[in-house]
Amino acid sequence: MTIWNAILLGLVQGIAEFLPISSSGHLSILQNLFGLSTAENGHLFFDVLLHLGTLASVCVVYWADIRQMVRDCLDMLYAIGHPEAAKGGRMPGARLALMIVTGTLPLVLILPVHSRVEELYNHTIFIGLALMLTGCMLYVSDKMIPGKKTGRTMRVRDALLIGLCQAVATIPGLSRSGTTITAGVATGLDRSFAVKFSFLLSIPAVLGANLLSLVDAIGEGVEWSYMPAYLIGTVVAAVTGIAAIRLLKFITAKGGFGKFCYYCWGAGFIAVVLTIIL
User: N or C: which terminus of the chain has fewer CB atoms within 10 Å of its end residue's CB?
Assistant: First the structure.
């Protein structure tokens, strides 16, 4: 694992994790077709750090929302034991936190087949087809008429449906952000809020997955001589992740992100062709 290798993987992770183009698909292509070192080559700890870097990106961009959720939840818990201190009115942060918890629950369905899903990472033709499917999904999402629901008006069933789509998007090559944002728009969410909910929904998903991966990484052993490269790659992933989130928010405010479909179609097609001829 060289420093340049780590920087490249950090760039790919930071950009592709949030833009609707599938980070898992791109990392798989880099590994399977170009021999770039990834977690599958004994760098599982680096994979954990990369995901924690992009998790930090979400926390930085949506810190105000996270702070409100924590504050409202603490106020609600305090009010249970101290009714006289209960605040009047609704607690939007607590309600949004409930929707995120609800949307995270469907990931439990993936646990029994998690190892089977990970095996798909090594099948580049499948990855290419999944990328093309992501492109089709993005194309359709851009044609949808967005609703007006926000965190104050979305329902539990909306969160569950988005969560189910997030669980499906654990399949390599499917974009998690693209799938959940599309599902959010389909349930009637305002497009900008669908983007916010998608990224906030990633926090417990990424944190939970990486806690499990961290146990495996420690068991596998950490090559400490690679740590400088690991840390540089993690910082690159965090910084580019922040830029990618803000770019997607900007694109969404201008009308949609369906144009990413052409990139996914092209990348998927090239991956399939190169797999066949190489």
Answer: C
**196: confidence class by pLDDT, cuts 50, 70, 90:** very high
- Mapped onto helix, strand or coil, the DSSP state of residue 254 is coil
Contact at 8 Å (CB) between 46 and 140?
no
- 89 conformational bin, left if phi > 0, alpha if psi -120 to 50, beta if neither: left
Query: Could you give the residue ranges of the DSSP H alpha helices within the chain?
Result: 3-16, 23-34, 44-61, 63-81, 92-104, 114-119, 124-143, 156-168, 176-186, 191-220, 227-253, 260-277
Reading the block at residue 37, the tokens are 């070192």
The pair of three-digit structure tokens given for residue 272, joined into one six-digit string: 């399939």
Angle at 21 between CA 62 and CA 5, to 5 degrees: 90
Other CB atoms within a 10 A radius of the CB of residue 81 amount to: 7
Condensed to tens digits (0 to 9), the pLDDT of residues 41-94 reads 556 778 888 889 999 999 999 999 999 999 999 888 877 765 554 555 568 899
Residue 189 in 3-state DSSP? strand
Indicate left, alpha or beta for 243 from its phi (over 0: left) and psi (-120 to 50: alpha).
alpha
At 149 the three-state DSSP class reads strand
Q: Which residues contact 113 (CB under 8 A, 6 or more apart)?
A: none
Could you tell me the two tokens for 113?
Answer: 């087949």
Read off the pLDDT of each residue in 257-264 and give the average, rounded to a whole number. Answer: 86
Is pLDDT of 126 > 90? yes
How much is the pLDDT for 112? Answer: 87
Q: Say if CB 179 and CB 173 are below 8 A apart.
A: no
Higher pLDDT, 131 or 144: 131
